[in-house]
Every structure is written in structure tokens, then in C-alpha cells.
Specification:
Layout: H1 2-23, H2 34-46, E1 70-83, H3 86-99, E2 105-110, E3 113-121, H4 124-134, E4 142-151
Antiparallel strand pairs: 1-3, 1-4, 2-3
Length: 152
């Protein structure tokens, strides 16, 4: 009985030693589909998760809306509040409007939470730059992809 236990322990130690030795092989083969590279370049050109982020100016003025038509496109918004308190949602919206008078704000109610989102950004890089600016004034700031309004 003792011999069987020793044999089992010896076998486990030997297997562990062989696994460790097999993992020290320095040959690593990377297999990458060419479609991944094509997708990365497409997303970079469209401004969706760009490979290299380029600094983009934060819009300070609203576009000329009187001569343009409003359409809906897939874009990005920055969420500045999420919670179940309606009064807090509207106070955060008012605080944001005092700081950025020309930027549109939106309140959504998905039971049981209110969400305050701001801006209509066409590219994620613009939304990320604005989000980084807002992190100094608001907590829990996130970028969301959704349908946004643009004027053309």
C-alpha cells in the first residue's frame, strides 16, 4: 500500500517536471488572420477605436442649424450620470448645461435608472477626448455608442 502511494507521488512529480520543461520551449508561432489587419485599418479610417489616437479639438460651438437638416447617424455620446434619483439626473443636466451651453443633453429613463448623456460625436476619438475633459467635473463618465443627431 505504501509502495503504491510512493509510485503515484513519483509519477505526479515526474509529470509536473515534464510539463515545466515542455513550457520552456522558446519557439512561439503567431497565427494572425489577414482580415484582422484589414478590420483594424477600416476602423481607424472610420474613427472607431483608432490604432493611433490623434488629438481632436472638442467642439465648443453648435453647428449652424438654421441652414442644415437634422439626420440620425451611428455615433457616440458621453454619459455623465446614471442613477435612480430623478432630481439628481436633472440637476446634473442643469450643471452640465451651465458649463457647456452649446452642447445638447439627453435624459433617458430605463427602469429603474435615469441616464444623462451629452454630445453628438461622430467618432469615438472625439467622444473620448471630451470624456477625459469631463472626468475633472463629473464622476463615472463613460462613452456609449448610439444613434446621434448631426446637421448636414
Amino acid at each position: 500500500m505504501l509502495k503504491k502511494g510512493l509510485i503515484v507521488v513519483f509519477a505526479l512529480v515526474a509529470c509536473t517536471f515534464l510539463k515545466v520543461k515542455a513550457q520552456k520551449n522558446d519557439n512561439v508561432v503567431i497565427v494572425k488572420d489577414t482580415l484582422i489587419t484589414i478590420l483594424q485599418h477600416y476602423r481607424a479610417n472610420m474613427g472607431i477605436n483608432p490604432i493611433e489616437s490623434k488629438p481632436v479639438a472638442v467642439p465648443t460651438k453648435a453647428p449652424v442649424r438654421s441652414a442644415a437638416t437634422r439626420t440620425t447617424v451611428r455615433g457616440f455620446r458621453v454619459q455623465i450620470y446614471a442613477g435612480s434619483d430623478r432630481n439628481n439626473a436633472f440637476s446634473e443636466q442643469a450643471r452640465f448645461r451651465n458649463m457647456y451651453k452649446d452642447m445638447d443633453t439627453y435624459i433617458n429613463y430605463d427602469e429603474p435608472n435615469y441616464r444623462v448623456k451629452v454630445g453628438d460625436f461622430r467618432s469615438r476619438s472625439e467622444a473620448n477626448n471630451f470624456m477625459n475633459l469631463l472626468r475633472q467635473q463629473f464622476k463615472n463618465v463613460f462613452v456609449f455608442s448610439e444613434n446621434v443627431f448631426v446637421y448636414q
